[in-house]
Amino acid sequence: MAEHTTAGSFGASEPDTDSPAVGRDHPGRHRDYEGRHRAEASSLSVWATAQSTGPVQRRGRYVPESVKHPARMLPAIAAHAIAAYTQPGDLVLDPMCGIGTTLVEAVHAGRDAFGIEYEPQWSNIADANIRHAHDQGASGRASVIRGDATRLMSLVPTALNGQVALVVTSPPYGPTVHGLVRPGEHGVVKYDDRYNDGEDRGNLAYRDLTGLTDGFAQILRGCTTLLRPGGAVVVTARPWRKRGELVDLPSAVIAAGLRAGLVPTERCVALLAAVRHGQLVARPSFFQLQQVRKARTSGVPMHLIAHEDVLIFTKTRTPEDGSGVVA
Ligand SMILES: C[S@@+](CC[C@H](N)C(=O)[O-])C[C@H]1O[C@@H](n2cnc3c(N)ncnc32)[C@H](O)[C@@H]1O
């Protein structure tokens, strides 16, 4: 699919004219300032996670069947979260791990990881991806449990309570997603656009927003028990439209985190667009592009979604933990 260019420059790399270090009449100092801030880009709230496309990020690093999953996380998002919130040897969890993106990126970064996945077809691919990562020399250990993460505590040994440094996950949104397309007799045909082929309510993809929020809060409650004090939870959620109306999944994620006893600490943006020469180059699916074009043709100024919200929570420390930060 051709890349699509959106309007607008990337604000984060623009100079801060309030800073005393920056003067329009001092181009040398201006360049110094930009260079320094570019070097610090890994600590910005805007994560440049789509500098290359998903297929390019996965090529050679994931087994080819991975592409069948309808809502994979960009590997760069998981890798960024792991680098930001853990140290080598730490334990990372993804309770809805799909084809195992979080786990693969964790073991490549020398972290250990485990994941839960409801659908055997995806947990099998996650297993294959972990084997592939180890064949490539990844040093972390990882395993996948097939099961319902709303019952997380019945799936993992109690010895893991308080041991997890970081949870990275993303909830499913709706029973069908964009999937892949091929030309058909009567136009474009969708495929690989479902999590499973039934109406199994155990898969949160089949619940409405309220049901999804309830189930996700249950999952996060289990994660909170497994997290160590001060541990982080990173959830990516794409704002999403159903019949043209916004489904506010990020707000539902914050509500679920609060109900699970977690403290929201940051809200970042993971770009689904590349930054090229001061412009954003979006990487939309065929159907996203079609929906936005149709809306604009009929006079609705709809924006192409080119980011995921990244909601970050922390498990608070208590005085009993014997460490500094107390909520
Ligand atoms: C948005 S996808 C996550 C994709 C994953 N990050 C990856 O890159 O492959 C959400 C996943 O949650 C799984 N899921 C849904 N309900 C679940 C449940 N109750 N327990 C465990 N996994 C579940 C879905 O089957 C789906 O694979």
Walk me through what this model shows.
α4 (101-108) runs parallel beside α5 and α7 crosses α8 (249-259). The radius of gyration is 21 Å and the shape is globular. The chain starts with a strand and ends in a 13-residue tail after the last strand. Strands 2-12-15-9-6-3-4-5 form an eight-stranded mixed sheet, sandwiched between helices. The chain has a three-stranded antiparallel sheet with strand order 1-14-13, with no helix packed on it. It is 30% helix and 25% strand. The protein has helices at 27-39, 54-58, 75-85, 101-108, 120-135, 152-155, 209-226, 249-259, 286-297; strands at 4-9, 46-47, 91-94, 112-117, 142-146, 164-169, 180-184, 187-191, 227-237, 240-242, 245-247, 263-271, 273-276, 279-282, 307-314. The model is unreliable at 1-25 (pLDDT under 50). The longest helix is centred in the middle third of the chain and has 18 residues, at 209-226. The chain has a single domain (4-14, 43-174, 207-318), classed as Vaccinia Virus protein VP39 (Rossmann fold), CATH 3.40.50. The protein is of the alpha/beta class and 327 residues long. β10 and β11 (245-247) form a beta hairpin. It has nine helices and 15 strands. Bound molecules: S-adenosylmethionine (SAM). S-adenosylmethionine (SAM) is lined by residues 69, 71-73, 96-99, 101, 116-119, 122, 148-150, 170, 172, 195, 202-205.
